[in-house]
UniProtKB/TrEMBL annotation:
This is Choline transporter-like protein. One of its GO terms (cellular component) is plasma membrane. It is found in: Cell membrane; Membrane. One of its GO terms (molecular function) is transmembrane transporter activity.
């Protein structure tokens, strides 16, 4: 008879909820936000109206560095910090230092909705656009860092930035200095690092997807061969696998301790700090010390388990040998593991796809910026106030963070539940198949014609 009907109904209802969350995520999500930067309007560069403008230009990077020391510290560690300067999408990053009104009219970077500079007949009108803050006050030779235009003047010995005529670049009658730009750029770089951990993962997956699939394929073939070989030399394979794991753990402890000792003796280890740049951790001796301790603990636990359970392992080897004989009577049991493996792959793909779309839902949210660099907590509408001379609206984030987080938790729990259901399904089907072999009085006549299919239907009940 059927079992666990209430739990089955609850499971189906939960799956329907996951499907609804997925559909809404695909409808409202925009994965381009993870790859491309967002301008001050909350629009994604390189998409939609800005399809031909994939780069992000900062009007004045010096505004990104807070003068308040407390805010400056939080700027490097918090995603809530907002660089208050206007940010616009451009076709490509500037290649030389120029005043805002000195560049050709078709290369001026201006806010959306600003009159076309090329439609103005005199330079004074274009200068007024710059003075009113509608167009960039200056342009600096920049490089593309994750689609953001970051100035390239930091390797030079100059202190003030000048144009081709050796005139200081200014904004609001203040000279733009290398130190000011460097501070602002560091804040922007810190925000990029914090915001783009997921982006780096996605880019790595996108660049190496064929290697990942090849690895899955190799693992599948290796597992199949391992099962076949176990039929003849089960005991040898079990102990070889056990000793191989012990050897790898032992080598891992040795290697990590050697790296720790090298950094400790050289005295060149970098301080341990939390950062999204994972390459920093390999230069810290504390990282290698932690790996040494963790691997050492695993090695010790495994050795103790082997000493305590060696007799049970011998029993397990005998069971594996008997299982190998059962496989010869039910050959489809060799191929069946492919089915739960594919189901797990589908579940994982669905989880990742929905997660990516879900995290990129929400409408842009703006806060009021007063004077030059003070962003308040007052919400505003970009179209209403963004062209006032003393107050502007600054994009800060996408709305719905609390709701999105709850849906992510719901989706994550559902993924764990569904993944474990698939794993348990495969285990129960194989267990039922081998049980039909074990309890068959005559192995030639009493085993069902399709033992795996019969076990599958029995498991679903």
């Amino acid at each position: 008879s059927c079992t666990d009907i209430p739990c089955c109904i609850l499971f189906i209802v939960y799956l329907v909820g996951m499907a609804i969350v997925g559909i809404l995520a695909f409808m409202w999500g925009n994965p381009d936000r993870l790859i491309n930067p967002v301008n001050s309007e909350g629009k994604t560069c390189g998409t939609g109206d800005y399809a031909n403008k994939p780069k992000l230009l900062f009007f004045d990077l010096t505004e990104c560095a807070p003068s308040d020391l407390t805010k400056a510290a939080s700027a490097f560690t918090s995603l809530d910090y907002v660089c208050p300067t206007t940010q616009v999408c451009v076709e490509k990053c500037p290649t030389k230092n120029e005043f805002g009104a000195d560049v050709p009219c078709n290369k001026m970077a201006c806010k959306s909705g600003t009159v076309d500079p090329c439609s103005l007949n005199d330079s004074s009108s274009r200068e007024k656009l710059v003075k009113d803050g509608k167009c960039a006050p200056y342009y600096l030779e920049s490089e593309d860092i994750l689609h953001r235009c970051i100035p390239t003047v930091f390797g030079s010995s100059i202190k003030e930035i000048v144009n081709d005529k050796n005139e200081p670049i200014t904004n609001n009658n203040k000279n733009i200095t290398k130190d000011g730009l460097e501070k602002g750029s560091k804040v922007v770089q810190a925000l990029i690092d914090l915001q783009n951990v997921g982006l780096k993962v996605l880019e790595d997956v996108g660049n190496s997807w064929w290697l990942i699939l090849a690895g899955f394929g190799i693992a599948l073939v290796a597992s199949f061969l391992y099962i076949v070989v176990m039929r003849w030399i089960a005991g040898l394979m079990v102990w070889l696998t056990t000793y191989a794991v012990l050897t790898l753990l032992g080598y891992g402890v040795y290697y990590c301790y050697t790296k720790y000792k090298e950094l400790d003796d050289a005295g060149e280890s970098s301080d341990f700090v939390f950062t999204a740049d994972l390459s920093v951790y390999k230069d810290s001796k504390k990282t290698w010390l932690a790996f040494t301790i963790i691997l050492g603990v695993f090695l010790l636990i495994l050795i103790l388990l082997l000493l305590a359970l060696r007799k049970r392992i011998q029993i397990a080897v005998a069971l594996i040998k008997e299982g190998s004989r059962a496989i010869s009577s039910m050959l489809f049991t060799l191929l069946f593991p492919i089915i739960p493996w594919l189901l797990q792959l589908i579940v994982f793909t669905w989880f990742v796809a929905v997660g990516v779309y879900l995290v990129t839902t929400g409408d842009p949210e703006f806060q009021l910026k007063k004077n030059e660099s003070a962003v308040t907590d007052t919400l505003c509408k970009y179209q209403v106030c963004c062209y006032d001379q003393n107050e502007t609206c600054v994009f800060v984030k996408f709305s719905g963070e609390v709701t999105i987080f709850r849906l992510q938790v719901y989706h994550l729990f559902g993924w764990f539940w569904l993944l474990n259901f698939v794993i348990a399904l495969g285990q129960c089907v194989l267990a039922g198949s081998f049980a039909s072999y074990y309890w068959a009085w005559d192995k030639k006549t009493d085993i069902p014609t399709f033992p795996v299919m019969a076990s599958f239907m029995r498991t679903l009940r």
